[in-house]
Design a protein that fits this description.
The protein is an alpha+beta fold. The chain folds into 2 domains: 32 residues, no CATH class; 54 residues, Alpha-Beta Plaits. The protein has 3 helices and 6 strands. The strands form 3 sheets. Strands 1-2 form a two-stranded antiparallel ribbon. Strand 4 and strand 5 form a beta hairpin. The longest helix has 10 residues. The relative contact order is 0.20. Bound molecules: iron/sulfur cluster (2 copies).
Length: 93
């Protein structure tokens, strides 16, 4: 598979978000979605509010990225700000 096809597939499954795929080489590539950091206290609110049921319990809880819609419910509901947006460094929330 060439690089262009690979990038298009990643965009299709929602792993990557491109300003433009056709201009590969000059494209802005940003990660989409959310992940759960180690500050998770295991309250389960994210899991209860996930429409996809794609959050697994654990220490910390974990998002099954392949099924995530990037709706942000988990991010909004977490009481301790343990859910982080991909690609955002030092997020204050
Ligand atoms: S962003 Fe939405 S779909 Fe993805 S894990 Fe969070 S609540 Fe679930
Ligand atoms: S809502 Fe936040 S603290 Fe609670 S289980 Fe989910 S990620 Fe962990």
């Amino acid at each position: 598979m060439d690089a262009q096809t690979c990038l298009k597939k990643l965009q299709y499954v929602g792993v990557l978000n491109f300003a433009t795929v056709d201009k590969y080489g000059n494209a802005m590539i940003t990660e989409k979605g959310y992940y759960i950091s180690r500050s998770c206290i295991g309250c389960g609110k994210c899991m209860k509010n996930c429409p996809q049921k794609c959050i697994m319990s654990g220490k910390p809880f974990q998002i099954i990225q392949e099924h995530c819609l990037h709706c942000g419910n988990c991010y909004e509901k977490c009481p301790v700000g343990a859910v982080k947006r991909q690609g955002i460094v030092n997020e204050t929330k």
